[in-house]
Amino acid sequence: MTGMKALSLCLAAGVVAACGSGDPTTGLTLDRVVAISDGDYLASTYADGILPPAEAGHRDLLTTTGIIDGTVRTQEIEISNSVTAAPEVLALSPDGSTAFVAERLGRRGSGDTMAGQLPPGNQLAAVRISEENTMTVAASATIAPAPEAIAVSPDGNHIAVVSNSAEATRLQLIPWSGTAFGTPADFDLAALGITGDSPGPRGGVLATNVQWHPGGRALAVNITTQDRVAFFSVDARPNGTVAVAPWGAPVRTGPDPFVGRFTPDGRHYLTSDWGRDLAATTLADRLPSDRSKLGVIRLGEPGTTTRHRVVATADTDKSAEGLAISPDGTHIATVNMRGSAFPPGSPGYDEYASVTLLRMDGATGAVTKIGDYPLRGVLPEGGAFDPTGEYFLATVFQGRGPQDPGPGIEIFRVGSDEQPGLTPVQRIPLPHGVHHVAVG
Prior knowledge:
The protein has 440 residues and is mainly β. The protein contains two helices and 29 strands.
C-alpha cells in the first residue's frame, strides 16, 4: 500500500464521509487503517468483572477502513481477540496485505457473564486484505495458550509470539509462507535465562511485548513484572531451523515496561514504563497516580562486548499504554488512559485521556517532550503513525455517554518543527471495543 496520498485535511468533527465535497484539496486520504475490537469487555469489566449482556450485540472484529478524499469505507470480519492483552496482538505484513491477530482470551460461551469464565486463547489468524479492503481468513494456527503480543519479521517470513501460560513464558517463531503457517520454533524463556523466584506462575515472569530489530536478526522481549527488557539474537537457517540466544544482558528499566519499540535505524529501543502496582487486587490500587515514563535504551553492537544501557528518560502522562515511533524516528507518541476508565465522580477519574508527543535525537537518544494532547473517550490503548509520519492515529474503546463521539480511531496531524504538536482532525467511528490500530 502507498499510505496516505493526500496532504490536505477535512477538519469536520463528525463522520468523515460528511466531509466529502469531491474537491481533492479538502479531503483526507488513507489507503488502509486496520483495527481490532473486543466485543466481550466493557471498560467497566476491568473493575467489576461483568461482561456486557449478550443483547448488546458487541462482537470481536477486525475492521479495515479506507478513506478517499474524506469518504470512509469500512469493512469488518469476525476475529477472536481480547483487550486484556497489551495493544500488541495485531500486526501487518510488510506489504500491508495480511493482518495477523492473536487471541489472548478465547470466545465467550453462551452462558458466560463474568470475565473469569473466558478461556485462555490459543489461536493466531492470518487475514488477507484485498486492494479494495475486503477480507478473507487465509490461515489459522494453534499456538501456546494466552498469547500476549505478536510481531512480524521485517522480511515477513516469521511471526514472533510471546505467551504466558501457567507453566511457562514462551517465545514462538512461526514461519509464514505467504499463504500458510509452518511449524513453530518454540522456546521456553527460562531456558534462555529469563527466570524468576517470586510466588505465582512462572516464578513471576510476565512477558507483555515482543519486537523485531529492523535488521531481522534480533528480538526484544519486555518482562514487565521484573522491570527489564531481554534481547535475543535470531538465526534463521537455510534448513528451516531457527536458533535463539541471549544478546547481551537484560536491561533494567523503569517500573512496568509494558510495551516497547525499536527505532527505525535499530540503534535504540524504547520502553513505555506504565508504573502499575502489579500486586494490587483492585483497579483503583493498581493504576498509578504518577505519570508514566519513556525509557531509551542504546543498543550495543552485535558481536562486541558493548552493553545495552538506558541513556534517556522522559515523563509522558498517566497510564501510558500504547507506544509508536514515526517512520523517520523523529517523533514518539504514547496513548495514555489517565483515569478515563474510572466511573465519573470516583477518585482518580479523568474526563479526558491524552496522547503525549515527544521528539527524539536519533544520534544521542535524547528525548524532549512536546506536550500532552487531550483525547475524549474511555480506555484508549493502541496508536500508530501513518507511513508518512504526518498523522497519528489513536484508538478509543468506547464513549463516555451520548454526547461523546463514541468508539473509533482519533486522527491527529503532527506539527512541524516550527509549529510542533498534535492537532485533532476527526474521529473514524468504529464498533465498540477498538483497542489497537495499524496503518498500511
